[in-house]
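Hi team,

Below is the intake form for HIT domain-containing protein from Oceanimonas smirnovii. Please confirm the fields before the structure is written into the shared record.

FORM ID: S-0412
PROTEIN: HIT domain-containing protein
ORGANISM: Oceanimonas smirnovii
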Amino acid sequence: MSDDFVLHERLAADCVVLGDLPLSRVLLAKDGRYPWLILVPRYAELREIHHLSEADQQQLMRESCALAQLMEQSLSPDKLNVAALGNMVPQLHLHHVARFTTDDAWPGPVWGRFEALLYDDLEAEAARWCERLAALPDFVSA
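The structure came back. Fields below:
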Protein backbone atom coordinates (compact mmCIF):
# COMPACT_ATOMS: atom_id res chain seq x y z
CA MET A 1 0.00 0.00 0.00
CA SER A 2 1.11 3.53 -0.54
CA ASP A 3 0.95 6.57 1.67
CA ASP A 4 -0.25 8.67 -1.28
CA PHE A 5 -3.37 6.55 -1.94
CA VAL A 6 -6.39 8.71 -2.77
CA LEU A 7 -9.78 7.33 -3.67
CA HIS A 8 -10.83 8.33 -7.20
CA GLU A 9 -13.29 11.25 -7.12
CA ARG A 10 -16.05 9.31 -8.86
CA LEU A 11 -15.81 6.43 -6.38
CA ALA A 12 -15.78 8.95 -3.53
CA ALA A 13 -18.93 10.60 -4.90
CA ASP A 14 -20.83 7.40 -5.72
CA CYS A 15 -19.91 5.37 -2.61
CA VAL A 16 -19.61 5.36 1.16
CA VAL A 17 -16.38 4.17 2.75
CA LEU A 18 -17.13 1.27 5.10
CA GLY A 19 -13.57 0.54 6.19
CA ASP A 20 -10.41 -1.32 5.28
CA LEU A 21 -9.20 -4.85 4.86
CA PRO A 22 -5.45 -5.53 4.88
CA LEU A 23 -5.08 -4.55 1.19
CA SER A 24 -8.32 -2.89 0.14
CA ARG A 25 -10.69 -0.12 1.07
CA VAL A 26 -14.29 -1.42 1.21
CA LEU A 27 -16.99 0.77 -0.32
CA LEU A 28 -20.77 0.60 -0.47
CA ALA A 29 -22.24 1.96 -3.70
CA LYS A 30 -25.02 4.45 -2.98
CA ASP A 31 -27.27 2.83 -5.60
CA GLY A 32 -29.92 1.05 -3.56
CA ARG A 33 -31.25 -0.90 -6.56
CA TYR A 34 -28.57 -3.54 -6.04
CA PRO A 35 -26.47 -4.62 -3.04
CA TRP A 36 -23.12 -3.42 -4.37
CA LEU A 37 -19.78 -3.46 -2.57
CA ILE A 38 -16.43 -2.46 -4.05
CA LEU A 39 -12.85 -3.30 -3.09
CA VAL A 40 -10.14 -0.75 -3.93
CA PRO A 41 -6.52 -1.80 -3.29
CA ARG A 42 -4.86 1.08 -1.46
CA TYR A 43 -2.14 1.88 -4.00
CA ALA A 44 -1.81 5.17 -5.84
CA GLU A 45 -2.06 5.09 -9.62
CA LEU A 46 -2.88 1.36 -9.76
CA ARG A 47 -4.95 0.33 -12.79
CA GLU A 48 -4.76 -3.44 -13.27
CA ILE A 49 -4.74 -6.54 -11.08
CA HIS A 50 -1.63 -7.86 -12.80
CA HIS A 51 0.23 -4.69 -11.73
CA LEU A 52 0.02 -5.91 -8.13
CA SER A 53 2.76 -8.10 -6.71
CA GLU A 54 1.95 -11.79 -6.67
CA ALA A 55 1.40 -11.64 -2.91
CA ASP A 56 -1.01 -8.70 -3.29
CA GLN A 57 -2.83 -10.44 -6.15
CA GLN A 58 -3.42 -13.38 -3.80
CA GLN A 59 -4.49 -11.04 -0.99
CA LEU A 60 -6.97 -9.29 -3.29
CA MET A 61 -8.40 -12.68 -4.28
CA ARG A 62 -8.72 -13.67 -0.60
CA GLU A 63 -10.50 -10.40 0.20
CA SER A 64 -12.76 -10.69 -2.84
CA CYS A 65 -13.72 -14.28 -2.03
CA ALA A 66 -14.37 -13.42 1.62
CA LEU A 67 -16.55 -10.48 0.58
CA ALA A 68 -18.41 -12.59 -1.99
CA GLN A 69 -19.04 -15.33 0.56
CA LEU A 70 -20.31 -12.76 3.07
CA MET A 71 -22.68 -11.27 0.50
CA GLU A 72 -23.89 -14.72 -0.50
CA GLN A 73 -24.55 -15.73 3.11
CA SER A 74 -26.20 -12.41 3.99
CA LEU A 75 -28.35 -11.94 0.89
CA SER A 76 -28.81 -15.32 -0.87
CA PRO A 77 -28.60 -13.74 -4.34
CA ASP A 78 -29.45 -15.63 -7.50
CA LYS A 79 -26.04 -14.62 -8.86
CA LEU A 80 -23.07 -12.63 -7.62
CA ASN A 81 -21.34 -10.49 -10.26
CA VAL A 82 -17.67 -9.74 -9.57
CA ALA A 83 -15.88 -7.51 -12.05
CA ALA A 84 -12.98 -5.11 -12.51
CA LEU A 85 -13.98 -2.91 -15.45
CA GLY A 86 -12.34 0.47 -15.03
CA ASN A 87 -13.70 2.06 -18.20
CA MET A 88 -15.07 5.10 -16.36
CA VAL A 89 -12.79 4.98 -13.30
CA PRO A 90 -9.22 3.95 -14.14
CA GLN A 91 -8.27 3.28 -10.50
CA LEU A 92 -8.30 -0.47 -9.87
CA HIS A 93 -11.51 -1.44 -8.12
CA LEU A 94 -13.38 -4.72 -7.93
CA HIS A 95 -17.20 -4.61 -8.01
CA HIS A 96 -19.27 -7.19 -6.08
CA VAL A 97 -22.93 -6.92 -7.07
CA ALA A 98 -25.61 -9.23 -5.66
CA ARG A 99 -28.11 -9.95 -8.43
CA PHE A 100 -31.64 -11.25 -8.19
CA THR A 101 -33.98 -12.41 -10.95
CA THR A 102 -36.37 -9.74 -9.63
CA ASP A 103 -33.95 -6.79 -9.88
CA ASP A 104 -34.54 -3.96 -12.37
CA ALA A 105 -31.73 -4.90 -14.75
CA TRP A 106 -31.96 -8.72 -14.68
CA PRO A 107 -30.53 -10.48 -16.64
CA GLY A 108 -28.54 -7.63 -18.18
CA PRO A 109 -25.66 -5.68 -16.65
CA VAL A 110 -26.32 -3.06 -13.97
CA TRP A 111 -23.99 -0.46 -15.47
CA GLY A 112 -25.69 2.40 -17.27
CA ARG A 113 -29.18 0.89 -17.25
CA PHE A 114 -30.86 3.23 -14.78
CA GLU A 115 -30.15 6.33 -12.75
CA ALA A 116 -28.96 5.43 -9.26
CA LEU A 117 -31.78 4.91 -6.79
CA LEU A 118 -30.43 6.12 -3.46
CA TYR A 119 -31.06 4.18 -0.27
CA ASP A 120 -33.87 5.53 1.91
CA ASP A 121 -31.42 5.44 4.81
CA LEU A 122 -27.85 5.18 3.51
CA GLU A 123 -26.35 5.56 6.97
CA ALA A 124 -28.35 2.60 8.31
CA GLU A 125 -27.41 0.45 5.29
CA ALA A 126 -23.73 1.31 5.77
CA ALA A 127 -23.99 0.40 9.46
CA ARG A 128 -25.56 -2.98 8.56
CA TRP A 129 -22.69 -3.72 6.20
CA CYS A 130 -20.09 -2.65 8.77
CA GLU A 131 -21.67 -5.04 11.25
CA ARG A 132 -21.52 -7.88 8.71
CA LEU A 133 -17.98 -6.99 7.66
CA ALA A 134 -16.82 -7.09 11.28
CA ALA A 135 -16.89 -10.89 10.96
CA LEU A 136 -14.09 -10.75 8.38
CA PRO A 137 -10.56 -11.11 9.72
CA ASP A 138 -8.69 -7.81 10.00
CA PHE A 139 -11.61 -5.59 8.94
CA VAL A 140 -11.33 -2.09 10.38
CA SER A 141 -14.43 0.09 10.01
CA ALA A 142 -14.10 3.69 8.88
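SUMMARY LINE: The mean pLDDT is 95.

Thanks, M.
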